[in-house]
Structure formats: C-alpha cells, structure tokens
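step=encode ok
step=design start
structure_in=
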C-alpha cells in the first residue's frame, strides 16, 4: 500500500508538473501576438447619433450599430443582477475564468453528446465574453478558447469589475439591431432602462447567447420559457423575492416597438442635417460618435407646411384634368392582389396608397388597398375629374387613393378619394428671421422618391421675388416710397446684328408715371428695369452679395427681373434679413450638438453671456446678450421695404392673403418666371418668414394661369392661417428714424385727412422732402455714372414713353414677370 501511494503521489506530481508545463506552453504559444487588452481602458464603442426636433422628439438615428452607451453607474442594479444571474453568477469572485463553470459545462456537453442532444453550454464568464467581443473573432475552436482565457486574465489585471461590466452591457448584441442593453430596452419595449419591469429585464438577459432562438414573435414559447428561467436564477441569487418571481412569470409577454407617433417625420430636413454632419465631422463620427443633435425643426409648422404644400400642388394638378390610372391588372385569375402587393407606392409619404378596383358601377366602386384594407369610391371621390366613376375607371384598374376623414360616425363605410401623382413639384421653407433657424422644410411633394431637396438644392429663377432687392438698393440711395418712376416700354439693343430686347409687364399694360410703392405692389417690370438703369448694376450686385443671394451676380440687367438662378433657402434668408431690420443671419438646421458625454461641441448661437452663471436668483437683472449680427442695410430702408411689401398683400398681387387674414401684419412678394415656368411666393410676419415655389423639375411652361399670386400665395395664406391661429397680431417693428406720414396711395402726395385712398407712408426722418414727391418723372431716374456701370451696358430710360435703343451688349435676357 505504501508503495502504491508513493507511486500515485509521484504520478500526481508528474501530472501537475506536466499540466503546469502545458499551461505555460499554451500561455507562451497562444499569448504572443494577442491584441492589446489595455486599449479597453479607453475604449469608446460606436454609439448611435440622434437627431431631435425643437420640442425634443426624436427625428432620426444614424448608426452602423444601434447602441446607446450608458455608464455603469447609470445602469439600474436590477439590469446588472439579471445578466449576472443568467451569465456569470460568480463574476465578482473569479479572476476571469470560472473553473467550476468550465467543468460543469464540459460534463453537460459530454452527457448531451452521449444522448444525441444538440444542446451545448459554453461556460464562458462575462470577462471572457468581453475578450471575445472586443478583441477576438467568433470562430469556434480550441485555439480561440485558449486565447480568450488568456485575454480574460489580462483584462482582469488592468480593468475593474464595474468597468468590465460596463463594456459588456454596452457592447453585447441582443437582436433586432440592438447593441447594448439601453438600445435593446428601447427596441423591444420602448422603455428606458429604469422603466423596465423584472420580467422585461429577464428577457433581455436571456438573449446574449442566441437572440434568434428567443425571438419574441417567431419563437415566443421559447422566449417565455427562457425569460422565466432567468427569473428563477435571479430568485436563487436573492436579487428578487418569491412574490416578484411569481408575478413576473405570470406577466404577459408584450413587445412594444417604438411608437411612430413620437418620431417626427421630416425627411428632407433630416437628410440635409445628416449631410452637414458628415461634411463637418466625417462618416465614422456620424455613424458612431453618439452625438445628440438638437435641430431647429418646429414639428407643428412642419406638419402644416407639408399638408398645405401638398394640397396646393394637388389643387393645381387637378385643374389640368385626369390623366388616367397607374396600370390595369388582369382580374381573370387570383394573382392580381399579389401583384398589387408587389408594386411600389411612391406616395406613401403623402398618406396615399395604391388600390385595386374589384367592382365598378356608375357612381361607385369597390377596392382593396396595397395595405390590405377594403373600401369604396363614391361620386364625390371623382368629382374633381368632372366625370363619373364608370367613365374613367374599370375593374382591375390600379389607382392612388387617400382615406377620407368623415365628419361624423353615422356610417361604417370606409370611403377613399381618387388621387393622381402630380407632375409639378417644388419646395417650402419657414424660417425665424431673427436667428436664421429653419423651422420647417418641405423638400418636395414626395421627397423620399428621389432624395432631392428642392428647398435647398434646386436652382430656380426667382422671378419677381427678386425685385425687393432692386427696390431696397434704390431706397438705400435716396429713393422714397412715393418717388415717381415712369411705367413705359423700354427697348435695349443686344449689339450689332443681335436684335433688341423689349421686356414687358405681365398684362402688357403700362401706367405711365407711377409711384415707387405701386410699382412693387403691382409687380411692374418696366419700373423695376428703369430703377436698375438709374442705379447701374453695381449697387444691385453689391446688395445681392450682402444678402447672400448670389456670390457674384453677372452685370446684366435681365437679372433685375429675376432671371438668374438661386435657391429657395437663399431667397427666404434674404427676406428674413429685410424683416429683421437689416441684420445679417446665417440659415441653420442645428441649434446645438453634444458629444456622447454631454459636452457641447457646436452651438449655432455663438454669443457669450458673461453674466449668465449665477448660483441663485437674488433679484438681479436679467443678463443681456450682445447682438453680434452685422448690419447689412440701414434699418430705415429695411422697414420701408417691409411697409411697401405689406401693400402687396393688402392691395397688390398677393391681396388674397390680406383678405383672409385681416388685422394680421403680413407682407410678401409674388413671383412668376418667364413663360410661367416657376411660381413663387415669399412672405412674412414680424417673426416668421415662409417661402415656396412650384414648377416642373425640368422647367417648362405650366400654362397662362400659373402665377405666383394665383397658386403660391393661397398656399402661404393657408400656412399662415394655421401658424398664426390664437396668436396676437404683433405689428412690424418701426425703427426710431422712421416717420409715418399720411399720403394718397395713388398719387403719393400728402393727404391732410383720412380720406379714401389715404395710407401711412414710411419716410426717413433725415429726409427733408419726406412728404413731397418729385414732379418731374425724369428727375429721379438719373443716368448712372461711368463708374457705376460700363456705358455700353445701359441705356437711359425714356421718360416720355417712346422706346429708345443704343449699342447695349446684354446677353441671355428673359422677360420675367
């Protein structure tokens, strides 16, 4: 027996030496060339970048891995306990490897293999999983497991247990695109971590090994069983009591995906913001930097803008008549509905759906939508086509429809209205004139269709919406609102052998000597051209650069009638700088950007408030922030332009607006380009600027009645009716060097009473002749000096109305109305 014991002892020692030698050999062989585990000390995982609207609601997320990083101190203990119970009960006691777990897993796997059971246990600790997820591949091999163990020991030597847990809980993949527990809580239950119930926490803790095995829909039974198992483990580890265990196991398994209603849809706005972020911070930071981007979007105004713009486009398109169905399907077999389901609905963004007509009568039709809903068309549904249902539709036709909102609940019928895809498009933008914050942006009727933002990317001729720039340049140089300018034909030579250019007014009518104000209200082309001829092109080039419309406007007089292309955003920004008193602003979609740690790394408002830091309020005055906006025109000239454009909506081409909103101070300008290719309106209240245009993406005539006043002004009107609802009628702010004088609107002469036709005209106090007017129509239309514009590029206007010509070399003129 003694001899036997000696032999066994010797064999044991030899075995231990051999095992130790083998372990040392393994550490030496597999430990060389491993990734540097020390990098985990400063590891920052890719985190989702989020865009938020002005009211704090989510707009969009950008990430390669949808992850929300949460520091370990902010993760609720219940979440930590659930993952420890499910994955590594002895986490705080082992040094990276749990030997008993490895042995237990090996016995389990061997037993299952002998009984043809495919189930396996890994026996990996949380530290090992961190090593695998961060530093190794998912390859299933003995070599990888050895490397994993080595790295686990090394990680435990440099990182604290809480830091290891923090990395694990933020890195682990938990299915449906969720990286980390915070993202999973949102994606599965629409909860933050501290809102999760024990049953919900247990389900998340059941997912790390194989999320697809416990899918909440496809594998519901397995998901519930695994959740209940985790709850039992939590009870065994004393993380929950018996009552919580039993109530949680009985809790219905309910997945609550994020409510679409809490996500603000503004795709053109979000995409422009994404492009800006990518340009300034790079693609890797955009998709992994974890930025919180606070945008300027006002969801209420965005909703109004999308609705009224689309309705305006639909109304214009319907006036051109019915163009026919999308397609027709053979109803002789049963696959028509299947084919409908495979068709692309390019107008879902507008709230439309594709529908297949299953039965058609004289004034009614039955249909089924792509979404699978059934309903009907009635006579009112097709009334706009000026025809009956059976004359334009038949069984098997595929059409666009929108669900009708019934005013009462007296019928259970589901009615739809016939729609057709509009041929024209356009954009709309609303802006805060004091800050440049873009409050609403409509990039097109269905922006999702081609990802082209017509509010910021489309270059269009602004037409008569450009005229305020010419008039403002004149006001800066001594013109007055009641200055008389001759409204008479002008002909300019295009040079030897090239003919001449004779622009005209919209209706080819001329008023002769007319006041400066009326020229704007009635959008007189010839008066605008005469003003430009008197100034020369240099002041107009200068003012368009100051106001950000053009960087370098070419010195051709056709430009003063809006023939040179620019964007809607630039035009809206220019009008904003008029209404704010001539202060320079820069359009922005972003208020502030914070990094993943909450530090502000960008702020649009760069002003510094020296007195804003106070521990408490002790009756001190409110801090005053400095106004750092550069003055780009004098406030008096800017206000005169505002006052003149008020006349446009009160008496001129936009008077439909003034009639709909009496008492509200509004101003603006219509625009219709040559051959009716673009329609515009840009208008404003004292604190809101809104502009839009409508036209074909490839410009072409839209018809004689397609004007900014008839089509775009009503859209602006409808926008303002909702935007200004229940808000006080704040007057335009009058600068101190303006004096209001009663004048007769038509003649511009002083009026000594409130007789019909009397208005309050804005004059600069420094102007001694503010109440008078020039008696000679030629006097205020001066020939520019050679320094103002080359002499071969202008012709002095003819005050008597007879067209004159000279050798003017002007290219690319268009008659803009």
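sequence_out=
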């Amino acid at each position: 027996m003694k001899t036997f014991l000696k032999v066994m002892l010797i064999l044991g020692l030899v075995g231990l030496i051999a095992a130790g030698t083998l372990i040392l050999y393994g550490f030496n062989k597999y430990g060389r060339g491993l990734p540097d585990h020390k990098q985990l000390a400063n590891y920052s995982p890719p985190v989702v970048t989020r865009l938020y609207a002005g009211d704090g609601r989510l707009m969009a997320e950008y990430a390669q891995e949808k992850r929300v990083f949460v520091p370990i101190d902010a993760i609720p203990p219940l979440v930590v306990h659930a993952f420890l119970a499910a994955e590594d009960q002895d986490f705080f006691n082992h040094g990276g490897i749990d030997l008993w777990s490895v042995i237990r897993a090996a016995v389990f796997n061997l037993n299952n293999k002998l009984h043809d059971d495919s189930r396996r246990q890994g026996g990996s600790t949380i530290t090992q999983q961190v090593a695998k997820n961060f530093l190794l591949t998912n390859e299933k091999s003995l070599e990888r497991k050895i490397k994993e163990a080595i790295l686990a020991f090394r990680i435990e030597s440099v990182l604290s247990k809480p830091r290891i847990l923090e990395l694990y809980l933020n890195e682990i993949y938990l299915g449906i695109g969720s990286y980390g527990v915070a993202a999973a809580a949102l994606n599965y239950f629409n909860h933050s971590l501290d809102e999760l119930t024990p049953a919900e926490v247990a389900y998340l803790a059941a997912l790390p090994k194989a999320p697809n095995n416990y899918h909440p829909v496809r594998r519901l039974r397995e998901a519930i069983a695994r959740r209940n198992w985790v709850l039992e483990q939590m009870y065994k580890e004393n993380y929950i009591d018996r009552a919580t265990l039993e109530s949680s196991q009985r809790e219905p398994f309910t997945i609550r995906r994020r409510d679409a209603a809490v996500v603000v849809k503004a795709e053109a706005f979000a995409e422009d913001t994404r492009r800006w972020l990518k340009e300034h911070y790079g693609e890797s930071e955009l998709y992994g930097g974890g930025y919180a981007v606070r945008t300027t979007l006002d969801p209420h105004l965005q909703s109004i803008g999308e609705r009224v713009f689309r309705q305006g486009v639909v109304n214009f398109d319907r006036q051109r008549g019915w163009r026919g169905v999308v397609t027709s399907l053979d109803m002789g077999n049963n696959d028509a509905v299947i084919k409908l389901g495979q068709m692309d609905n390019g107008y879902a963004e507008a709230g439309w759906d594709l529908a297949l007509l299953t039965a058609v009568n004289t004034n009614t039709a039955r249909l089924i939508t792509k979404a699978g809903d059934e309903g009907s068309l009635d006579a009112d549904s097709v009334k706009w086509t000026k025809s009956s249902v059976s004359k334009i539709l038949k069984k098997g036709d595929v059409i666009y429809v929108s669900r009708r909102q019934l005013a009462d609940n007296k019928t259970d019928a589901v009615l739809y209205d016939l729609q057709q895809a509009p041929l024209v498009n356009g954009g709309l933008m609303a802006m805060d004139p004091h800050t440049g914050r873009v409050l609403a942006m409509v990039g097109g009727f269905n922006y999702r269709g081609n990802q082209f933002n017509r509010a910021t990317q489309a270059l269009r001729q602004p037409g008569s919406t450009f005229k305020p720039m010419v008039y403002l340049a004149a006001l800066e140089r001594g013109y007055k609102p009641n200055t008389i300018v001759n409204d008479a034909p002008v002909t300019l030579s295009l040079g030897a052998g090239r003919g001449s250019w004779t622009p005209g007014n919209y209706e080819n009518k001329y008023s002769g000597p007319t006041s400066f104000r009326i020229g704007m209200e009635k959008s007189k082309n010839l008066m605008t051209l005469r003003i430009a001829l008197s100034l020369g092109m240099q002041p107009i080039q200068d003012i368009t650069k100051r106001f950000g419309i053009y960087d370098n406007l070419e010195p051709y007089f056709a430009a003063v009638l809006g023939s040179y292309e620019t964007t809607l955003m630039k035009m809206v920004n220019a009008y904003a700088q008029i209404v704010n008193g001539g202060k320079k602003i820069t359009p922005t979609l972003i208020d502030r950007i914070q990094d993943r740690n909450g530090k502000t790394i960008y702020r649009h408002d760069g002003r510094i408030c020296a007195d804003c830091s106070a521990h408490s309020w002790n009756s001190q005055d409110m801090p005053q922030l400095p106004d750092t906006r550069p003055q780009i025109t004098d406030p008096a000239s800017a206000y005169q332009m505002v006052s003149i454009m008020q006349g446009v909506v009160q008496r001129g081409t936009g008077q439909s607006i003034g009639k709909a909103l009496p008492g509200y101070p509004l101003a603006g300008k219509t625009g219709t380009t040559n051959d009716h290719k673009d329609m515009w309106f840009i208008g404003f209240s004292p604190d809101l600027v809104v502009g839009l245009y409508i036209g074909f993406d490839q410009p072409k005539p839209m018809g004689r009645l397609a004007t900014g006043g008839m089509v775009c002004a009503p859209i602006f009107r409808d926008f303002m009716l909702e935007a200004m609802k229940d808000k006080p009628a704040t007057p335009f702010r009058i600068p101190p060097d303006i004096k209001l004088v009663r004048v007769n609107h038509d003649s511009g002469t002083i009026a000594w009473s409130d007789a019909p036709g009397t208005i309050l005209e804005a004059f600069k106090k420094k102007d001694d002749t503010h109440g008078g007017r020039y008696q000679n129509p030629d006097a205020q239309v001066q020939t520019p000096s050679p320094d103002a514009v080359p002499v071969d590029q202008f012709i002095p206007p003819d005050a008597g109305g007879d067209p004159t010509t000279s050798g003017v070399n002007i290219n690319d003129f268009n008659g803009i109305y």
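step=design ok
step=annotate ok -> Confidence is low (pLDDT under 50) at residues 769-817.
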